[in-house]
């Protein structure tokens, strides 16, 4: 019998071929105007046997960009370029969401309109680096958003969701993880505000709830997922008491009703251990939608997570870069191609569309 990981699964109105998702992965290969490149259509179509592809984080506005050559979803040209990608994935039988991204303070003046300072909940520089083409460099000092600017940020995400649907995506994933803008508002290591968006955990989860509600109202709850990373630090962003913070975040998401929560269990790409300890099972209990588990899993761990009822879907990041046919390899117990780290960020086909599938 095939394991349930490899069997059909209903996500909202979609019938996915299996419960394996391709996690969103920044590859810094966008074309001029931060449009998805033509190679990008080939790259995702090669990976269309994933039950769901979550396409890489795409900035919802020019100020939402934090790395060189990441795609956007705010201009008509970007929507048209993404349409080529979604058509190629659908033709290959897959389903694809787009991750909506605002980096907040994780950016550099050289990437922003008019050399502007990055935006943040508070004027505190992140202890992290960004990719500017010649490798990774320290981020710039940010400025604190005025409270009057926050409705505009929410509207950027709302428009990003509408644009994603216009570009043929099956839905969107709100990037509320990994130390970017929404995560910066949530975590007390980055948010020093004294207004209605800072201080209490209710205030710090306000932007998450408002963005999720706006996206759900715009395109329907069945088409909206949310990605969270309770543990830290990642991109210099951590919280002193993440359990209570993220229990409230899950309570709010339960009330708003996005179709899935994509949970980074542990420190992104590094470890499943957390300090302070985060009880992911307790977080999951507060939300009745689809729980997608992520981070440093292999095929056996993914199957065990389903068997034990700890997850409904499982996502893989790095393994999907190196293995376009990852689902088949996991199902049949075939060996995996190794990841080439040198070609992760920037460049062309090498390390992007040239990883071999099994014959
Ligand atoms: C690695 C390099 C650049 C961006 C994330 C969007 O951590 C990213 C990212 C990861 O979520």
Write a compact overview of the structure shown.
The chain is α/β, with parallel strands linked by helices. It has a single domain, classed as TIM Barrel.
Total domain modules: 1
Gross morphology is globular
Rg over C-alpha atoms, rounded to the nearest angstrom: 19 Å
Task: Determine the strand fraction and express it as a percent band.
Answer: 15-25%
Strands side by side in the biggest sheet: 3-4-5-10-11-12-13-14
Sheet of most strands: 8 strands, parallel, barrel
Describe this structure in words.
With 359 residues, the protein is of the alpha/beta class. It has a single domain, classed as Aldolase class I (TIM Barrel), CATH 3.20.20.70. 30% of the residues lie in helices and 16% in strands. It is built from eleven helices and 14 strands. An eight-stranded parallel beta barrel has the order 3-4-5-10-11-12-13-14, surrounded by four helices. β4 (52-59), α2 (76-91) and β5 form a beta-alpha-beta unit. The longest helix has 17 residues, at 150-166. The two termini are 23 Å apart. Bound molecules: 2-Phenylacrylic acid.
What is this structure's SSE topology?
Blueprint: E1 9-11, E2 14-16, E3 20-22, H1 38-46, E4 52-59, H2 76-91, E5 96-101, E6 119-120, E7 129-131, E8 136-138, E9 143-144, H3 150-166, E10 171-176, H4 181-186, H5 201-204, H6 206-219, E11 224-228, H7 242-256, E12 260-264, H8 280-285, E13 290-294, H9 299-307, E14 313-316, H10 318-322, H11 326-332
Parallel strand pairs: 3-4, 3-14, 4-5, 5-10, 6-9, 10-11, 11-12, 12-13, 13-14
Antiparallel strand pairs: 1-2, 7-8
């Amino acid at each position: 019998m095939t394991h349930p990981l490899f069997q059909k699964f209903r996500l909202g109105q979609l019938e996915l071929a299996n419960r394996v998702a391709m996690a969103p992965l920044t590859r810094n290969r966008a074309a001029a105007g931060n449009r998805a490149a033509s190679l990008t259509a080939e790259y995702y179509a090669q990976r269309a046997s994933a039950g769901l592809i979550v396409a890489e984080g795409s900035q919802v506005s020019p100020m939402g960009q934090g790395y060189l050559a990441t795609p956007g979803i705010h201009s008509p040209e970007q929507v048209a370029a993404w349409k080529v990608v979604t058509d190629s994935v659908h033709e290959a039988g897959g389903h694809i969401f787009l991750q909506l991204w605002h980096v907040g303070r994780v950016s550099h003046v050289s990437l922003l309109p008019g050399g502007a300072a990055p935006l943040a909940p508070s004027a505190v520089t992140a202890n992290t680096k960004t990719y500017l083409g010649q490798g990774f460099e320290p981020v710039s000092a940010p400025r604190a958003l005025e409270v009057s600017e926050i409705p505009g940020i929410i509207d950027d995400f709302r428009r990003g969701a509408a644009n994603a649907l216009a570009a043929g995506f099956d839905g969107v994933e709100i990037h509320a993880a990994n130390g970017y803008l929404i995560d910066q508002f949530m975590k007390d290591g980055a948010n020093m505000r004294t207004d209605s968006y800072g201080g209490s955990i209710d205030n710090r989860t306000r932007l998450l709830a408002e963005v999720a509600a706006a996206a759900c109202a715009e395109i329907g709850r069945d088409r909206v997922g949310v990605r969270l990373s309770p543990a830290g630090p990642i991109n210099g962003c951590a919280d002193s008491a993440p359990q209570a913070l993220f229990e409230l975040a899950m309570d709010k998401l339960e009330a708003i009703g996005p179709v899935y929560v994509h949970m980074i269990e542990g420190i992104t790409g590094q470890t499943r251990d957390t300090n302070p300890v985060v009880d992911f099972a307790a977080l999951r209990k507060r939300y009745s939608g689809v729980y997608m588990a992520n981070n440093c899993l292999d095929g056996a761990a993914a199957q065990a997570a389903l068997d034990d009822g700890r997850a409904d879907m499982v996502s893989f990041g790095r393994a999907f870069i190196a293995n376009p046919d990852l689902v088949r390899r996991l199902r049949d117990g075939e060996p995996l191609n190794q990841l080439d780290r040198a070609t992760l960020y920037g460049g062309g086909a090498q390390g992007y569309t040239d990883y071999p599938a099994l014959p």
